[in-house]
Specification:
The complex is a heterotetramer of chains A (202), B (326), C (108) and D (397). Chain B has 326 residues and is an alpha/beta fold. Chain B contains eleven helices and eight strands. Chain B has one domain: 3-Layer(aba) Sandwich (Rossmann fold), CATH 3.40.50. Chain B has an eight-stranded mixed β-sheet, sandwiched between helices. The model of chain B has no long low-confidence stretch (mean pLDDT 93). The chains are: A alpha/beta (202), B alpha/beta (326), C mainly beta (108), D alpha/beta (397). The interface between B and C is large, with 41 and 42 residues.
Chain lengths: 202, 326, 108, 397
């Protein structure tokens, strides 16, 4: 079976819901441009989302056709993106990860300030921290893309853009120029890419 | 033969310090941070106390509260369909009447409270609510009004204000104001046609002591009673979740919400501002109104001005254009 | 009989016991980005935080004459900070605290 | 003392409900079941029955009131017909999912359009997959008995399921027949008081019906599936007790008439079994070896009993008073079930379905003769011409 790269995005309902979805959608769209097979979707059980509730968005990228389509969850994420850094205190965000994964966090703090809240950090190959709030300023709140609707606002106008830059930098999973082709705030994407602090762990 | 009666008298309270400390709507529910409906639920449950059964028609206060086989209700609670809160309450009240009469259950008739959203009260749930009131069941029907079908992702309901941006009334070049229709008036709907109802009141999460006292009064009055509770929704109305109480207060200060009691045909106001602020003050703190133009706001102000003359007086509203959508 | 694994059992007809005091199956302390921090010196026990918390996360400790915060369930809406009459409550970033960790394995 | 009276099916149902000492009744008028509620209203007004009699604002409300009352611990009764049955459709699955033994009488009526008072089983049959027990009565006596039997079975702790207790509109519901009313003491012996396992009780608070996840939903489905696996045993026990206490001779699931040496049989549920018996008597006089197998419960469907009973014959004609437009059998609802039950039988009879009595038309003796002819020809040809015959409107193929 084809190797499927699983990317899980942790975010908070309503206030950062669209931003989290944007991260998953943009990764899939950028990989599409590379001719790869992709999926991006909300975790259905997390819906309807409520203000601040932890929710998950998923992307899957593969060089061959992806055979699992109806699984609600990414069982073995190799990349985890945390849209709100405080979530590291609340969830085992690395659940299911095999050794050698990458964690990308939206934070203005240092990697070690985040890692101290992650008891299973030895699963990580690297952690990448980027101050997406500082770079992009705001989170877009819009419901058009939720519940299977079509997004009416556009991808990556807010904090998703620098986070995507950080994912590209830390994982090389998709090319930066392909992300730039799908993201609205390209400047924030590039700044995120540049300003990401990557710390190798293992 | 035992007769099913309530001998309890839930006494009014004077100040915040006298609010009962016991919680019957306990921490541990999946409602939004800053949820107005959750706040009113907590207050209602406190006011009603342990001898209470809640009926929860589908809506946020069902789905968010009872998520995944656990609930925050320390008193008996039953799910009802969004359609039938009033009918299920009727059945429960009737069962207690007969079970007490036949000696199959010992105790006081419980407080039977339907906790329905605006859709479950005055849209799809209207028929069941009206029939419960017509038949005179000893039950309190609460419409917690967050002015939309919030659980399904913020769709318009009959109480969504004119100009509200919901996912079913998005503003666009052809329909710039979003929602074109003016809302139903739930308490007037109840007062207007249900002679068995002797007590109706409006309440707000901004005035918890008033709210608690109204719940208690409604439960003390025999027969069906109705409360219309304003419960701001940070998700649906798009305001910061710390502002729930502030927004609720603004609604009263601008006349968008009026606190009153109706008892045996008499209206009494509570917390009526000496001078109303312009409606604009209320609209500008909520992103659901961000798209409105001056003309739309003027229309809304005219509606509120007319409504403020007195409860129960029919408001002349600008007739929506013929192809108005909800 | 069907073979239902123990961990997947559901009570008969989905009828569940009422919670006592709190619902341990729905812990919401991990919802917070910010938490309210109280300065008891400034608090005049106006009770606004107690009355206005949708999650009943402020309670009055009668004996100590002070309000007590429930970190296990507070979702961080900060209504209490907004409604505090004496500015005794302040909004503080959750990562500034080592405590208040609610590390759930699974959501719900 | 037991006594014999003459009652319509509606009146007989009301008598049974009264003797079951029901606590909460919810009514809404629709022909032809209405008289059952009229009878109960009189009993309540006269003080013969101590029950809350609630005028629902529609069938949806009738079922909703009973849902609430049953959850609170009351024995409940409601009923409807035709489009009333389908108007309440939303409520059926929540009631069976909540495992509340609500009892609903259905006096069948066609579904619109346009309005037709005639009896068709289509109203009830369209609700057959909602987790309720379901079965038909042939006579007012059987209707009376079925109401008591269904309360007993539905309220059994191993079952806890709601029950549709059906009778054909007009034919059974309106036409008077002899009914032996038992002693109240007999009913009390047969039917213990309802003991709800988890009533809405302020002294022991519980939550009914919280939201669940998909992985929990399947377990709830399994609970109902298990109940339906367990219910046949409970029905057998109840019928044994019923026959002993009331001196009747019911079979739990399928009743046979003139089948000992039969080559062909009618398979039928409800009122028209009565005419079929007379038709069989006459056909036997002409030398045709024909009999009748009558179904008493369509939910749970007695697969083994039906397979065993029907595999003895050369051909089976399923006489249907309901239809499934566009179905695998081109219309026959019961035929779906019959053929599925027979699939694994070592010996399978020829089967076909007769749309008879549709629209609520009477099925006269001649039509049964015609159906018998079709079956006889099928035996002779070794094949049936069609899955479904609309009786009176087509030639025997």
């Amino acid at each position: 079976m084809a190797h499927v790269h699983e990317i899980t995005v942790w975010t908070r309902g309503v206030v950062k819901d669209k931003e989290g979805r944007d991260v998953a959608n943009a990764l899939a769209k950028a990989a599409d441009k590379e001719g790869r097979f992709t999926q991006a979707f909300d975790n259905y059980v997390d819906l309807p989302d409520r203000v601040n509730v932890p929710v998950r968005k998923y992307a899957r990228i593969s060089d061959e056709e992806i055979e699992m389509r109806y699984d609600y969850e990414n069982e073995k994420p190799e990349v985890v993106v945390v849209v709100d850094a405080t979530m590291v205190k609340g969830m085992n965000i690395l659940r299911g990860m095999n050794k050698g994964g990458v964690l990308v966090v939206n934070t203005d703090r240092k990697p070690e300030d985040i890692l101290k809240f992650i008891p299973n950090k030895d699963l990580l190959k690297a952690i990448a921290c980027v101050d997406a709030d500082g770079i992009a300023g705001t989170a877009t709140v819009d419901f058009s893309g939720s519940e299977g609707g079509v997004d009416a606002v556009g991808l990556g106008a807010g904090i998703a853009a620098p986070l995507l830059g950080a994912v590209a930098r830390a994982t090389g999973l998709v090319k930066l120029e392909n992300l730039a082709a799908v993201v609205k705030n390209k400047e924030a994407l590039y700044r995120g890419h540049e300003q990401t602090v990557v710390q190798t762990i293992n | 033969m035992a007769v099913a009666v309530k001998t309890q008298t839930l006494s009014p309270i004077k100040k915040i310090r006298s609010v009962p400390t016991e919680e019957y709507y306990v921490p541990g529910h999946r409602t939004c941070a800053g949820c107005g409906p959750a706040l009113q639920y907590k207050l209602v449950a406190k006011a009603a106390g342990p001898n209470t059964i809640f009926i929860g028609p589908t809506g946020c206060m069902y789905v968010a509260n009872s998520s995944y086989l656990c609930t925050p209700y320390a008193v008996p609670w039953i799910h009802a369909q969004i359609t039938n809160g009033g009918a299920v309450a009727s059945g429960i009240e009737a069962a207690y009447q007969v079970l007490i009469r036949k000696g199959k259950w010992e105790g006081e008739l419980p407080n039977v409270i339907v906790m329905a959203g605006d859709g479950g009260s005055v849209d799809i749930g209207l028929q069941a609510m009206s029939a419960m009131m017509y038949r005179g069941h000893d039950a309190l029907f609460i419409c917690y009004d967050n002015e939309a079908y919030a659980n399904t992702g913020i769709q318009t309901s009959p109480t969504t204000p004119y100009g509200g941006n919901t996912t079913f009334t998005p503003p666009g070049p052809a329909i710039p104001e979003g929602k074109r229709l003016f809302p139903k008036d739930p308490p007037q709907l109840v007062i207007g046609g249900h002679p068995a109802v002797k007590y109706v009141a409006t309440a707000s999460v901004a005035y918890p002591v008033d709210l608690i006292n109204k719940v208690r009064k409604a439960l003390n009055v025999p027969g069906p009673t109705f409360l219309h509770i304003h419960a701001p929704c940070p998700k649906g109305w798009k305001f910061d979740e710390s502002k729930t109480v502030e927004v609720a207060k603004l609604a009263i200060q601008t006349g968008m919400w009026v606190l009153y009691e109706w008892e045996n045909g008499e209206f009494k106001y509570q917390h009526k501002p000496k001078e109303y602020k312009p409606v604009r003050e209320y609209l500008k703190v909520q992103n659901r109104f961000a798209h409105l133009t001056e003309a739309h706001i003027a229309k809304m102000q005219a509606f509120v001005d007319a409504k403020l003359k007195a409860p129960g007086i029919p408001v002349e509203i600008p007739v929506p254009p013929p192809r108005a959508t909800a | 009989m069907f073979d239902i694994p123990k961990e997947r059992e559901v009570p008969f007809a989905g009828v569940t016991p009422a919670p006592v005091g709190e619902q341990p199956m729905m812990i919401t302390g991990n919802w917070r980005t910010y938490r309210p921090v109280i300065d008891h010196e400034k608090c005049n026990l106006c009770m606004n935080c107690v009355i206005f918390c949708p999650d009943a996360c402020w309670q009055l400790n009668e004996a100590e004459e002070e309000v007590v915060w429930n970190s296990k369930y507070c979702k961080g809406c900060l209504i209490c900070v907004n409604e505090c009459t004496t500015a005794a409550l302040t909004k503080t970033y959750e990562l500034d605290f080592e405590d208040g960790v609610v590390r759930l394995e699974k959501l719900f | 003392m037991a006594k014999e009276v003459t009652l319509s099916g509606c009146a007989a149902a009301a008598q049974a409900v009264k003797m079951a000492k029901v606590d909460v009744i919810c009514s809404y008028p629709i022909r032809p079941y209405t008289a059952a509620m009229m009878e109960l209203a009189k009993m309540v007004a006269n003080g013969e029955l101590d029950a809350e009699f609630i005028h629902g604002e529609g069938e949806h409300a009738q079922l909703s009131v009973c849902y609430g009352a049953s959850a609170a611990g009351a024995r409940t009764f409601t009923g409807s017909s035709g489009v009333g049955v389908t108007y309440a459709f939303e409520t059926y699955s929540p009631i069976s999912g909540a495992r509340l033994p609500v009892q609903m009488m259905i006096a069948d009526r066609t579904l619109d359009p346009p309005g037709d008072f005639g009896s068709e089983h289509t109203d009830a049959m369209s609700c057959r997959d909602q987790g309720w027990l379901m079965g038909w009565a042939e006579t007012p006596q059987e209707a009376f008995d079925n109401h008591l039997i269904n309360y007993r079975v539905g309220e059994d702790p191993r079952v806890m399921l709601p029950q549709f207790v059906c009778q054909d509109g007009y034919f059974v519901s309106h036409l008077p027949g002899k009914v032996t009313l038992p002693d109240q003491s007999q009913v009390d012996e047969f039917l213990p008081p309802y003991k709800p396992p988890h009533a809405l009780d302020t002294k022991k608070p519980v939550s009914h019906g919280p939201q669940i996840r998909p992985d929990q939903g399947v377990i709830m489905d399994l609970q109902r599936a298990q109940a339906f696996l367990d219910v046949p045993k409970v029905i057998r026990g109840a019928i044994d007790d019923f026959n002993r206490i009331f001196g009747r001779r019911y079979s739990p699931f399928v009743e046979e008439y003139q089948t000992d040496d039969a080559d062909v049989v009618f398979f039928i549920q409800g009122a028209h079994a009565l005419t079929a018996r007379h038709a069989i008597k006459h056909l036997r006089g002409k030398g045709l070896k024909i009999g009748l197998v009558k179904l008493r419960f369509v939910r749970p469907f007695p697969t083994e009993e039906v397979a065993e009973a029907l595999s003895k014959f050369k051909a089976v004609g399923v006489v249907e008073t309901s239809t499934s437009y566009g179905g695998a059998m081109r219309g026959g609802n019961l035929l779906h079930e019959v053929r599925a039950a027979l699939y694994d039988a070592p010996k399978r009879p020829l089967t076909t379905s007769f749309m008879a009595g549709m629209g609520g038309e009477v099925i006269p003796l001649q039509e049964f003769y015609w159906m018998a002819e079709v079956l006889a020809k099928a035996v002779k040809d070794g094949r049936v011409g069609k899955y479904v015959y609309w009786v009176g409107f087509e030639q025997a193929a």
